[in-house]
Amino acid sequence: MPASRFTQTGNYRTRYQQDQTIFATYAEQASLIVFVLLLLTLPLLLPKTMLRDVNMIMIYAVAVIGLNVTTGYTGLINIGQAAFMGVGAYATALAATRWGLPFFLAIPLGGVAGAVIGTFVGLPSLRLKYLYLAVATLAFQLIFEWSVGHSPLLEQGGAISLPTVQVFGIRDTFLNHNIFWYYLILPVLVALALLWRNVLRTRHGRSLIAVRDNDRAAAAMGIHPGTAKLTAFMIGSFYAGIAGGLFAYFQKAVVIEDYGLSISVQLLAMAIVGGLGSLPGSFLGPLFIVALDRTMEKASQWLGGLNLFPEGVDVTSALRPLSFGLAIVLFLMFEPRGLANWWRLVRMYFKKWPYKF
Amino acid sequence: MELLPQLLLAGVVIGSIYALAALGFVLIYKSSRVINFAHGQIIASGAFIAFALTQAGMNLWLAGLIAMVATFLLGMLIERVFLRRMVGEPIIAVIMVTIGLASVIDGLLHLTPYGAGNYSFPTPAVLGGQGIELFGTQLSRIQLTGVLASLALLAGFTYFFNKSTLGITMRAVADDQMAAMSVGTSVERVFALAWAAAGLTAAAAGVILGLMSGLTLGGLAGIGLKVFPVVILGGLDSVAGAIVGGILIGILENLSAGYLDGLVPGGGTREVFPFIILIAVLLVRPYGLFGTKEIERV
């Protein structure tokens, strides 16, 4: 253990148990608690219009944690995370409208539905690796979109609206919609992040990393790579399903456009920009991509007002994919470890501050 | 049966374009093991370059040729600027770079006036007349020219790989990069050439497709997704596989449109059927009909 449990000046760990602790110092623990408390007061500080984006970021963060489980920690490229979100969203919507389940049962049910379908889609991973698996998940994404678009049960991809929610006597109304869901999504996100942080410390979590780094070595150590890969798909798509259920309720309706291929690509971009295989990255990535998107929307409104472009050019639909693509490419070329690496560097700096040695 | 030959013929027509698109994809994969998600966007940029030139009053054939040269250079540029840095990086990074590039090219195309619109090439007089009668179905001159042009290009590339020194060099690099390097082959030059050649075939596919079914960014770039069933069925690293897979997928999707559409509410099975085939092929024979067997079980 460190000389003091308040500051850390080096690595004093002598036993594996010490290595497995989540927080090395009380300072880290305290700063996280302060951060979460700050998050609880965020709706008071932010303008109301931005709260909607914050909610989107948090929902995407849930999905990106899931994507990080499959792609970041286990190394299985998944271009179908939005489809898993969609499975969760449609399951939630059906449970809420057909069976009349309350939201606190419908959303977990969406997660379970996502996990079941995800495990099923993950089955090819028993035989396939790398890009073959990427293509398989891509195919699932397209088949999912098509199937939803053609089933009358799911309104052929049109809007299925969800019932209004009531918690502790407070109703979700037009006026308090964003704040209401902020306080519902935040605990879910924190709980799911803590859950994954802890799963990662167990045998199962560590076996996923072993399979990613070298699946033959993992097999030699007694880990069954197939089971590990299916576990990864199950956990990853469970998170996606929960995110989908939250998204469905937050948007008040399920529409197929919210779960398309481009969203899958966006989720992958979030995971990469944040940093593959890192929990802080799962929050930083969505934050960055959503912020970039909004900035570009503003920028293109401004640019469009200048009349610089020929007739028929929609600046918004040009700048958004352009900036999004550039962000992915530049991050991969210059900072493959993503924003999480910057976060790590900042932390490293302050760990020993003001003593730099 | 009047329907069957018609479906088969339509399948071969669209399949030959899939084959041409898949050829570019295979060229890149074969030489550098990169899956190019931006191929559809390169196809679209080729088609729009040709369209812009015809709008400026240029002859369609000349415009098509210039577009092919332009995408040849574009492919080389993409390889030089973006992909060369990614050598040795994990496979997901390389895949994501091409996905990012697809998005960048999408954005750039939207900056031109053609991004959001729906256009069609001015049909040259030679292609406008009566088509030919084949097995009791009509084949328009545009379709016929498209098939013949695709087949000519495919035959040309097959010849190039089997006979020319450069083609053999490219195959050598594909077989074993280390060995090729040790006998003095410039692997970098081969990578650049593969991307350039892929760009060339992409423009050809784009122009032919544009002639047949009009120019929309979504439609042209969408071919980039259709390529996956084709190359998985044919084998990711086989030129012959691209041709056979392209025509097979073309025929199968038309057959499904002809016979399955009535069974499904809303129809439109042709969009999804190739991907169901893709999953089936992955489960049964992941390396495809002609691909190299390098799959391992866990």
TrEMBL record, chain A:
It comes from Deinococcus koreensis. GO terms for molecular function: branched-chain amino acid transmembrane transporter activity. One of its GO terms (cellular component) is plasma membrane. Keywords: Cell membrane, Membrane, Transmembrane, Transmembrane helix. InterPro entries: ABC_transp_permease, LivM-like. The chain crosses the membrane at residues 23-45, 57-79, 99-123, 179-196, 230-251, 263-292. This is Branched-chain amino acid ABC transporter permease. It is found in: Cell membrane. CDD domains: TM_PBP1_LivM_like. It is a multi-pass membrane protein.
TrEMBL record, chain B:
The chain crosses the membrane at residues 6-27, 34-54, 60-78, 90-111, 142-161, 190-215, 227-252, 272-290. GO terms for molecular function: transmembrane transporter activity. InterPro entries: ABC_transp_permease, BCAA_transport_permease. It comes from the Bacteria. It is a multi-pass membrane protein. GO terms for biological process: amino acid transport. The keyword Acyltransferase does not apply. It is found in: Cell membrane. This is Branched-chain amino acid ABC transporter permease. It comes from Deinococcus koreensis.
